[in-house]
Design brief:
- It is built from 2 helices and no strands.
- It has 148 residues and is an all-alpha fold.
- It folds into 2 domains: 39 residues; 99 residues.
């Protein structure tokens, strides 16, 4: 089959003396198209060295991108570590203040209990002394009472 054999038939309304011109034009257009396709194929063909070099460039770009992401993640980790450290320090200070406050409350409770005990002991002593004095007053009144 020649290249001219696979061309579609020329419509009947075109005069016969122009049929050869149409065939020549179609074949020329086809040859031009085929030449352009071959040229593009040649441009698209990549040598193994060029392919390897482009892979290296892509890998280097990927490595640089990953290095940048790792650096950003490291910075974020460091920021979070500092924040956690600061919060931990704040929590430790709050715990120390709470423990100091609890110790002071216990100390004041012990003082209050001692005061209450002293107050109770003093009240008991004063009550006993009052009762003793009343008894003594009654005894003295009884002695001082002169029968009439």
């Amino acid at each position: 089959m020649t290249p001219a054999d696979d061309l579609p038939p020329i419509p009947d309304w075109i005069p016969a003396h122009l049929h050869q011109n149409f065939r020549d034009y179609a074949l020329a257009a086809r040859a031009e198209r085929d030449a352009e396709i071959e040229g593009l194929k040649a441009k698209l063909e990549i040598s193994p060295e060029l392919l390897a070099a482009s892979r290296c460039v892509i890998m280097q770009s990927t490595i640089e991108k990953m290095d940048k992401e790792i650096a950003e993640q490291d910075a974020e980790i460091e920021r979070l570590r500092k924040k956690l450290s600061d919060e931990w320090e704040t929590a430790e200070k709050a715990i120390e203040r709470a423990e100091a406050a609890e110790a002071r409350v216990n100390e004041l409770r012990d003082l209050r209990q001692n005061e209450m005990k002293m107050h109770t002991d003093a009240h008991r002593e004063l009550t006993q002394e009052r009762d003793t004095l009343r008894a003594r007053v009654a005894e003295l009144e009884e002695k001082l009472m002169v029968p009439k």
